[in-house]
Structure formats: structure tokens, C-alpha cells
Amino acid sequence: QIWLDDVNCVGTESSLATCPHLPFGSHNCIHAEDVGVTCGSGSTPTPTPIPTSNPSSVNVRLVGGATPNTGRVEVFFNGQWGTVCDDYFGSASANVVCRQLGYS
């Protein structure tokens, strides 16, 4: 499942879901374009809240990485985890993901 595409954060958002993006579930990409990030390794993340389907507070996680602070970005929406894909997912969007996960 691909949940988010064309994410364009400015970097100050508190949640990936509040960044401009296509509607949840709408995309023009394939899984080869799934987004991965590496968050700062010098800090310990805060616990992730219980997943919710409220799009303004969508939860994120990193999966498939060699360490807990790296991996493919997934969001929880409509009762299901799905990926984020984007041709131009930049450092501002990555910073929002990391901050949402509790990394500084």
C-alpha cells in the first residue's frame, strides 16, 4: 500500500501528515520510489503513540533498516501501514519524519 506521494514539507511541521501532499492513497509512483531516511543516531526516540486514523496526527515508523534510526518511511492510515513514495523527498521532509519519531 502506498499512502503518501508528493510530500513537500518546509521543515517546521510537527507531523508528516500536515505537510502538503497528494490525498492519502493517491499516487503516481511505484514501490521503487519508496522513501527511506536516516535519523540522528545520537539521541533516543520517544515512544510512538498508539496508531490512529486521524490524518492530522498520522503515525510514522521506519522499517527494514539495519538500525532502528534508519529505514523505509511508513505511515499508519485507515487501519493499515503503508509507504511514502516521492521522487523529490528532501531533507526538510526527512527532518519532519525524524522529529515526529522523537529524534533530535
Helices, strands, pairings?
Blueprint: E1 2-5, E2 36-38, E3 59-64, E4 70-77, E5 80-85, H1 91-100
Parallel strand pairs: 1-5
Antiparallel strand pairs: 2-4, 3-4, 4-5
Can you offer a commentary on this structure?
It contains one helix and five strands. With 104 residues, the protein is mainly β. The radius of gyration is 12 Å and the shape is globular. It starts with a strand and ends with a helix.
Task: Compose a concise summary of this entry.
With 104 residues, the chain is mainly beta. It is built from 1 helix and 5 strands, in the order E-E-E-E-E-H.
Q: What key phrases describe this protein's structure?
A:
104 residues, mainly beta, 5-stranded mixed β-sheet, 1 helix
Overall strand count: 5
Query: Mean of residue pLDDT?
Result: 86
- Biggest pleated-sheet summary: 5 strands, mixed
Shape: globular
Distance between the termini: 29 Å
How many helices? The count is 1
- SSE pattern, N- to C-terminal: EEEEEH
